[in-house]
Amino acid sequence: MFSGYGYMNLEMGQPEKAFMFFKSNIEYYPKSASAYNSMADYYEAKNDDANALKYVTRAFELSGENQYEDRMKELEKKN
After folding, report:
1. Average pLDDT, the chain
2. Cα(28)–Cα(51) distance, rounded to whole angstroms?
């Protein structure tokens, strides 16, 4: 639910509110790879690839899923 509200606010041009929801998602679900991936989406939308990479790396560490590894590689190319 936190992610959904975060994405909604991001799309509505309210990044501060989006950040609050993504941050809360991580606080409530610190072992959720999806929560970290959502925060990476936030930072990528803000053109902050360094922080996006940090959060997607954490998502990969938690899950080991290829989708996060692939995204890490794409973000590393941008940096």
Report:
1. 96
2. 20
